[in-house]
Specification:
Elements lengths: L11 E2 L1 H5 L7 H10 L3 H5 L5 E4 L5 E4 L6 E3 L2 H10 L5 E4 L11 H7 L11 H5 L5 E4 L18 H6 L3 E4 L1 H4 L12 H14 L2 H22 L9 E6 L8 E3 L4 H8 L3 E2 L8 E3 L2 H7 L3 E5 L6 H17 L7 H5 L2 E2 L4 H4 L4 H13 L6
Parallel strand pairs: 1-2, 4-5, 4-6, 6-7, 8-10, 8-12, 12-13
Antiparallel strand pairs: 2-3, 9-11
Helix pairs in contact: 9-10, 10-16, 11-16
Length: 362
């Protein structure tokens, strides 16, 4: 794959959407990213050009901060809002529902034009007037192969004057060569977006906050032997109950579960997600089950959805005998902050650990 470079001069190559690469956030990726971001902090405060890479190493170079950004979905939109670059976003696909983003972010998000309720049509994206498109889930080399619709080619993006970059912690997950066991790739994405948009100081604050939460949990549960850590199943109720969709070891949720001091019962599955059979879940007999519910926009609506998911497990003849179900070991923690790479992943680590280790994690 050839490099995509606009802006000419030699660039500072960053380590987030970039050097963490397809390592998926393992410790090696974190070390690699740290080694390549020495000048990134400077670039994000105005010292351009800045370069980022995709999963295959192809570079995209920025000679200055983008002015009109389109995001593929709510996750990259949320990151930009948290970084303070929301005023540069002119459109998004998969827009967040009203009330689904926390606090003041919700009001800002509702002001962003929804270019599509799902994947942004090719013609609309190319004609949006954007100078940057941030892709969250697309398969590298084109969205078409990943079930994401008829995507523009890199040549078409270039002809339209749109630079195309990825959230590597998500887009590269399936290509990872090893399990994702920490949040370094997510943190690297935040650092990179900060550098690209000139909001590096805020990115540094966000990453520091994430590290503080995770480090506190690790300190509290670090002495618990692996064999004594509770087993854990993420029940993706939204994906349907006929055949469960399970979390594999390349998905960010696996890192969240692991960091919280639990053992993902499908840790032996190489990939991000897969469909399994209920007989597989029952055979794992997890100690705890997280009810995977997407935010409905209100506390009452969320409670109703959690209740429905729990009732299904309790009344289904095939699942009601599982240990976690019989003991009422359910966690009501939202799906988005668990399975979508972002700042709230660290908070989810904390929430899970507080439930599983009430005497250790305050």
């Amino acid at each position: 794959m050839r490099s995509r470079v606009w802006g000419g001069a030699a660039a500072v190559v960053l380590g987030g959407l970039l050097a963490a690469g397809c390592g998926g956030g393992g410790k090696g990726a974190a070390d690699q990213g740290a080694g390549k971001t020495g000048k990134a902090g400077d670039s994000a405060t105005g010292a351009y050009p800045v370069s980022v890479t995709d999963c295959m190493g192809a570079e995209t170079t920025f000679s200055d901060a983008p002015k009109k950004i389109v995001t593929s979905n709510a996750s990259s939109l949320e990151l930009l809002l948290r970084l303070g670059a929301g005023d540069k976003v002119i459109g998004t696909g998969f827009p967040p529902g009203k009330g689904t983003l926390p606090g003041a972010l919700d009001a800002q998000a509702q002001k962003v034009e929804a270019l599509s309720r799902s994947v942004i049509p090719k013609e609309k994206l190319l004609g949006s007037g954007a100078d940057l498109y941030i892709d969250t889930f697309a398969a590298m080399g084109g969205m078409g192969g990943g079930g994401m619709g008829d995507a523009p080619t890199e040549e078409e993006f270039k002809a339209a004057g749109i630079k195309h970059i990825y959230l590597k912690s998500t887009a590269c997950a399936a290509r990872s060569k090893s399990p994702v066991t920490d949040l370094s790739a997510v943190e690297a994405d935040i650092t990179s977006l900060g550098a690209v948009t000139g909001t590096s100081a805020r990115a540094k604050e966000l990453v520091a906050g994430m590290k503080a939460k995770v480090d506190a949990v690790q300190k509290a549960v670090g002495d618990v032997e692996e064999s004594k850590r509770p087993t854990y199943f993420f029940f993706d109720y939204e994906a349907g109950t006929k055949q469960p969709t399970v979390i594999c070891n390349r998905q960010v949720a696996h890192a969240v579960i692991t960091l919280a001091g639990a053992r993902n019962v499908f840790a032996d599955c190489n990939g991000d997600r897969k469909q399994a059979g209920w007989e597989d879940v029952i055979a794992k007999n997890p100690d705890w089950i997280q009810l995977g519910i997407r935010n409905r926009g209100s506390e009452a609506a969320n409670k109703k959805a959690f209740d429905e998911a729990q009732k299904w497990l309790e009344t289904n003849p095939a699942t009601q005998g599982m240990k976690a179900v019989k003991e009422g070991h359910f966690l009501r923690i939202g799906s988005e902050q668990t399975t979508i790479a972002g700042v709230e992943n660290a908070g989810t680590v904390e929430k899970i650990a507080k439930t599983l280790y009430p005497g250790k994690v305050g």
